[in-house]
From TrEMBL:
Disulfide bonds join C134-C151, C153-C162, C269-C278. InterPro entries: DSL (IPR001774), EGF (IPR000742), EGF-like_Ca-bd_dom (IPR001881), EGF-type_Asp/Asn_hydroxyl_site (IPR000152), Notch/Slit_guidance (IPR051355). Keywords: Developmental protein, Disulfide bond, EGF-like domain, Glycoprotein, Repeat, Signal. The keyword Disulfide bond applies. Pfam families: DSL (PF01414), EGF (PF00008). The lineage of its organism: Eukaryota, Metazoa, Spiralia, Lophotrochozoa, Annelida. The keyword Transmembrane does not apply. GO terms for molecular function: calcium ion binding. It comes from Owenia fusiformis (Polychaete worm). This is Uncharacterized protein. It comes from the Eukaryota. One of its GO terms (cellular component) is plasma membrane.
Amino acid sequence: MISTRNASMWTLLYVSLFAAFAYHVQAGVVIESVDGSNSTKGCAKNYYGENCDIYCKENERYICSVNGTKICRNGFQAPEQDCMLDTTPNPECPDDGDCINGFCRAKTCVCNPGWRGRFCHIQILGCEPAPGPCLNGGTCRHTSGVERFNCFCTPQWTGRYCETPLQPPCTPRDDCSGHYTCVGNNKVCLPGWTDPSRDCTVRTIPQPNDPECPIQGFCQQGSCFQGRCCCNQHWDGLLCSCKKLYCNDRPCQNGGACRNLEDDYSCTCPPGWTGKNCDQRTSNV
């Protein structure tokens, strides 16, 4: 069980009847306190809601509210459809038409799940043409129902078309990617670390007084850990002083050309490929 005085004080985690360990917890952590007072829960990155069961990850079409609701960016609408409906004239659309059930990218239509065709105008009501409408490695099987197919998803995905990722189980870790143990499927920060919403990667000891900082200096855009720097998102370098160049990781697949952006990258895909990393085949008729 966990005992919490308030969201910014120490939390005691009793692992068994004979051992106790102290962990520092910031707002957004805890399940139940000894005195019965309410406390908050920290969700994994991109998960929201009281039970951390709402998934929302920002992209070029929408941003996420504090409760995980999708808010469409300018030029898009229909949040219940992942803001797939493009509402503005788009020079990236095919010259001879708009994408009806999808969005435009580089003169090509990227279709919503369940649609195909040059303009995403043909509804998929079965498993043909291959590989069918199932996404992320899902297997399509014919049925006698109205839509004439079911998607059988891999363990990491769910939804009608296997389009929704499942929240992975919490696994304790203590490295640059996170510093936490697990209570149920919730992350509880290890001593000296905080912010479970970011995998407890925020150091609570101020620099340069942190004894774990590198000898040659302190981490400018990151946290000290075992004599080296764990850089914040979008930062790189020995002391986390350089903006990260994402194209160095060669994320674009299938011959796509990478271009570094301020805090991201973009791929220009060759014909026949689309997606963030040019890893999805286009559907043309």
